[in-house]
Amino acid sequence: MPVVNTITKIHNIVQRLSPTTEPQLIYTPIPWENSYTNVRGLLKTLLARSEVKSLETVTIPDFEQPPSQADRYLKVRDLTWTQPRYQLDICMRKEDGPWFEFVSVSIQNHQSLPYMNQALLEYMSDGLAFAMAEETAIGAKFKDVGYGLPDTSDVITVFGEVHEELILQPRLITSCTPLTWNLSGGSSVISGENLDRVQLLLVNAGDTNIWVSRSETAEIGKGAILLPGGSFTVQDYYGPVAAIAEGSGLLTGEACS
After folding, report:
1. β-pairing, 155-168 with 5-16?
2. Which residues, in sequence order, are CB contacts of 86 under 8 Å at separation 6+?
3. 110 and 61 in contact (C-beta within 8 Å)?
């Protein structure tokens, strides 16, 4: 059965929002430059930090004593949605289609609090992450709900952490090109970066040792050594490959895609 390899990298979101009703792109998975990969983004955290002085302050209401869950819920709801506020909408779109509102939160100026932190991911997913496929994007915009839009002096920033998973699909070799390299003491790049390369076969056809490195520069004593008559296969690697001989060397092989 073909092996599917997965590479994971972390992408951080740090974006200050402009006071506009037009959606501003926050994140979209960026595919690689070939057709053999698939990328998805796992949104691990997403929060909005706001520091607004352009709104009137709102005061936390008094709650019943002893505390009642229903009383607390109703008063917090009314405080959040009926008092002076800016509305921040997290939007989604697919394949450059129209934006749709996904999550809406109120941005307020609470008395005695210099700023607010609001977790957004908990409104997007019940799990540990929110998965995003290629050509899917999330953005943010503001909506005027009777109090205008944030002032340019207000600071509203979105922070997040995305784990991007790059899935390398199994590929079949369809063609190979024979190659020959004459090495004469210095380091040589024998194959540059190539996202379409499936396999690179190297054979030491000379009488001296050859050192191979998966980089742009090879050094004697570092990397993989090819003894005379030996062979080496580079697979599942798309970056540059360099080689150096301990004297004059002859390297043959083939590049397959």
Report:
1. antiparallel
2. 52, 55, 106, 107, 108, 142, 145, 147, 148, 149, 150
3. no
Q: What is the DSSP letter of 65?
A: S
φ and ψ at residue 72, rounded to 5 degrees? -65, -45
CA distance 60 to 156: 21
Closest among 130, 126, 110 to 118, alpha carbons compared: 110
E strand or H helix at 72, and its extent? helix 69-82
| pLDDT tens, residue by residue, 217-226 | 999 999 999 9
Tell me which residue has tokens 């609090």: 113
Decide: pTM greater than 0.90: no
Task: Please give the Cα distance from 152 to 158 (Å, whole number).
Answer: 16
Instruction: Identify whether 66 is preceded by a cis peptide bond (ω within 30 of 0).
Output: yes
For the segment 92-131, what is each residue's pLDDT rounded down to a tens digit? 999 889 999 999 999 999 988 889 999 999 999 988 999 9
Looking only at the bridges linking them, the beta strands covering 37-51 and 57-58 are unpaired
Token reading at 208: 């001296």
| Spatial contact of 11 and 132, defined as CB atoms under 8 Å apart | no
- Encoded tokens for 57: 């302050």
Structure tokens at 132: 């995003």
Which residue bears the tokens 């709104």? 55
- Torsion region of 229: left, alpha or beta (phi above 0 gives left; psi -120 to 50 gives alpha): left
